[in-house]
Design brief:
By secondary structure, the protein is α/β, with parallel strands linked by helices. Helices cover about 35% and strands about 20% of the residues.
């Protein structure tokens, strides 16, 4: 496919969330100065941080940048939806604030959209900021509909050019994903019921059901400062991983898949997690893990927004 890139650069809305990470967000904004693409806006969506982000940066110091202040923490899904509603772009680039942009990132991510109208979402190669030669994401492997687990292609591998071919992938990565505005208008926004984790998988499933392709763009690279937002064994992360793994399967599995998943989760995943927490003395994590499971016993899998 040969891209026919328009003479007039389309407007790209770059949306990033800030929650008590003003310095990290400032570093993200500094990296935006290296972009060789000029027709963009940046929307920094602050999720009711306890300390004003303006103590670390001023939006006016960065081109085309707005600081939007929410009066409550809307989570990853709700926060990005809030930003999308205020965005003006033809394309929406949802990106973590704990990333570093590269100069040609925007232009390279836009190219596939002009190669095929079926491409609805584009994700770059994601590499670890602290280890810039190590891959975090070069596409997703398929979700196992019996276990509710997946993995990213290339994770923790030294990048020696082993994933040079761009192509369709099974889901977009919430760390960095560019979405055509048309896709959002036809399929809706992030499912806010998830709040945090698995929301990109649920959204990706809906986008693909609408006939769009999710594309891995091998030529584009972004660097990710992993685990700055939520610690590995943070109870919040434990809760939402357990809760949303089950919720995703309830929303996206057929009856047979769901039956097998419930058996697998009940007799393997849940005992394994609890034993691991016990051995590590992480009793608070057990409480929040069980809360995440319990959520699905009393709440519908349907979302108000989609």
């Amino acid at each position: 496919m040969n891209a026919s890139f328009p003479e007039k650069e389309p407007l790209v809305s770059i949306i990033t969330l800030n929650y008590n990470q003003a310095q990290v967000t400032r570093e993200f904004l500094e990296s935006s100065k290296s972009l060789n693409y000029r027709n963009y806006e940046i929307l920094v969506c602050d999720m009711a941080s306890s300390i004003s982000p303006e103590t670390a940066f001023r939006a006016s110091d960065y081109p085309n940048t707005r600081l939007l202040l929410s009066d409550k923490n809307l989570g990853f899904s709700g926060g990005n939806n809030w930003g999308i509603r205020q965005a003006k772009g033809d394309f929406i680039f949802i990106v973590n604030n704990d990333t570093e942009l590269t100069p040609d990132l925007i232009r390279l991510m836009l190219q596939p959209f002009y190669e095929s109208p079926a491409i609805g979402v584009v994700c770059p190669k994601i590499k670890y900021f602290e280890h810039p030669d190590v891959i975090q994401y070069a596409g997703f492997r398929p979700m196992n509909r019996f276990t509710g687990r997946t993995a990213t292609v290339g994770d923790m591998e030294q990048d020696v050019g082993q994933y040079p071919v761009s192509g369709p992938t099974y889901a977009a990565h919430g760390c960095a994903m560019m979405v055509k505005k048309e896709v959002i208008e036809k399929t809706g926004l992030f499912p806010e019921k998830f709040f945090l984790y698995y929301e990109e998988w649920d959204w990706s499933a809906r986008i693909q059901k609408a006939g769009y392709i999710i594309w891995y763009q091998a030529a584009a690279t972004i660097y990710h400062k992993v685990s700055l937002s939520v610690g590995k064994d943070n109870p919040v992360k434990v809760y939402y991983h357990a809760r949303n793994r089950i919720l995703f399967m309830r929303r996206n599995s057929n009856p047979l898949q769901l039956l097998v998943f419930f058996l697998f989760f009940t007799f393997f995943s849940m005992p394994k997690a609890i034993i691991s927490f016990l051995l590590n003395g992480q009793f608070l994590q057990i409480k929040w893990f069980l809360k995440g499971v319990g959520y699905n016993l009393v709440h519908s899998s349907a979302s108000v927004e989609n």
